Please model this.
Amino acid sequence: MMVIMPESIRRESRVSPRVLGPVIDEMTRCVHYQTAVDIVAIKFACCNEYYPCHLCHAETADHPAEQWPLGERNQEAVLCGACGTELTIESYLATNECLNCRAPFNERCRLHAHLYFETED
Ligand SMILES: [Zn+2]
Ligand SMILES: [Zn+2]
Ligand SMILES: [Zn+2]
Model:
């Protein structure tokens, strides 16, 4: 589903694909998570758009967030803000660094994985 919004209310980073929400730099850090390792953006299952974090989605999107079902772990839904590579959910959950540029990811993100991906536990 495409959600059409006026360009004026979007704040996009310059990485490609675009990342929506209050992004503060080109590594997709946002107003909520700004440490050196917070460089990952997540594509949300509900709108197929990247946001830096679940709070960005809650504040910016006009609908509740939906999680990727277990059966869709092969979807490329994780964006490395350092190099722009898209990882599948499966590879993201199995690594602590970007598979392409080796930039370290925030391990604490794992604590909120259930906000983005359906989990078994
Ligand atoms: Zn959404
Ligand atoms: Zn955020
Ligand atoms: Zn990378």
